[in-house]
């Protein structure tokens, strides 16, 4: 693929993301217009003074409600998509996702424990518990996989993830049955949501996301080498186990961070990278940046649907992504069978 085409694809993805952000901040009952929003954003640039025409109430809605939510959705979507691409490259499985090694189950257990124990009081109780649960689950998965299978196969690590996820799900179910008065609050978190308290959630997760995305992108060429297998990659000077550990740690860090503030939002890490791979091929030099940009756009658009389909009520965003992801896989499976 030529450099011009790669630049055009990345540029197109940037345009799609900007369009998603504009739709996300304008759609809703506040009467915000695209022109007013763009002018108000321009007015925030140092040295620029323009009249956006927005009222003081509309200005507050834009900067304290709409924009933080849209930016959070973009950050969560970008992280889940690039983490999914990294997992798929590391494990050489196009259907792997960020929740493969137990992040979702561990985060769900942590959040449930915080809710039923009363530690959910305040804005950071649940996110901290969910983050810790997700990281601990993946750590347990990796240690168990290494202890059983050594460095011989990534399949052992995946199977260890299944075992850890099953244990975490069982513990979570036990807590829910013992404290059924908290079921609604637990399920509200598990089904995913992008409710924000100003910019707090964005600022909390952003450092983790930046570090994770940077580490993954720096290994884009190494992921292409690892696609040929561990033995061949080692002969080319790559240390497969070291690379696998680094990328799993980075993807887990980013995933646990965003899941801690958004709840469990499935399918993004599978649908977006897989769809991009069908169009541009498996090369990670282009797959990773496109996953980052289009993953952000995908979740912003999904959040718009969640806010508008049953307005004034709001659907859990995890329901929306599942409704999109399930038909996608039916199409993929049908196409694979046809070929």
TrEMBL record:
UniProt KW Membrane keyword: yes
Transmembrane portions of the chain: 7-32, 70-87, 99-120, 126-144, 156-175, 198-218, 245-274, 286-306, 313-333
Recorded superkingdom: Bacteria
Membrane topology value: Multi-pass membrane protein
Keywords, in A-Z order: Cell membrane, Membrane, Transmembrane, Transmembrane helix, Transport
Subcellular location: Cell membrane
Keyword Ribosomal protein: no
Similarity comment: family membership: Belongs to the binding-protein-dependent transport system permease family. FecCD subfamily.
Protein name: Iron ABC transporter permease
Lineage summary: Bacteria, Bacillati, Actinomycetota, Actinomycetes, Mycobacteriales
């Amino acid at each position: 693929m030529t450099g011009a085409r790669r630049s055009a694809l990345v540029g197109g993805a940037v345009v799609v993301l900007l369009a998603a952000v504009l739709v996300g901040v304008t759609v809703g009952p506040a009467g915000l217009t695209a022109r007013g929003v763009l002018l108000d954003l321009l007015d925030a640039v140092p040295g620029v003074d323009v009249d956006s025409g927005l009222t003081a109430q509309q200005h507050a809605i834009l900067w304290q409600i709409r924009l933080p939510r849209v930016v959070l959705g973009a950050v969560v979507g970008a992280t889940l998509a690039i983490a999914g691409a990294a997992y798929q490259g590391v494990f050489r499985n196009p259907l792997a996702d960020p929740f493969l090694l137990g992040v979702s189950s561990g985060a769900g257990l942590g959040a449930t424990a915080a809710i039923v124990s009363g530690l959910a009081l305040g804005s950071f109780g649940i996110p901290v518990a969910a983050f810790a649960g997700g990281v601990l689950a993946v750590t347990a998965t990796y240690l168990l996989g290494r202890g059983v299978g050594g460095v011989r196969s990534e399949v052992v690590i995946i199977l260890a993830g299944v075992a850890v996820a099953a244990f975490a799900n069982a513990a979570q179910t036990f807590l829910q049955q013992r404290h059924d008065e908290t079921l609604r609050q637990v399920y509200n978190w598990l089904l995913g949501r992008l409710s924000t308290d100003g910019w707090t959630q964005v600022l909390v997760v952003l450092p983790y996301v930046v570090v994770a995305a940077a580490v993954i992108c720096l290994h884009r060429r190494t992921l292409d080498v690892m696609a040929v297998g561990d033995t061949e990659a080692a002969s080319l000077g790559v240390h497969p186990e070291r690379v696998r550990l680094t990328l799993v740690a980075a993807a887990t860090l980013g995933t646990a961070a965003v899941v801690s503030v958004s709840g469990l939002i499935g399918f993004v890490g599978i649908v977006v990278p897989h769809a991009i791979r069908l169009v541009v091929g498996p090369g990670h030099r282009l797959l990773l940046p496109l996953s980052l940009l289009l993953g952000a756009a995908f979740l912003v658009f999904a959040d718009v649907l969640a806010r508008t389909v049953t307005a004034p009520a709001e659907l859990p965003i995890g329901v929306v992504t599942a409704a999109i992801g399930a038909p996608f896989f039916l199409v993929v499976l049908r196409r694979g069978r046809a070929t």
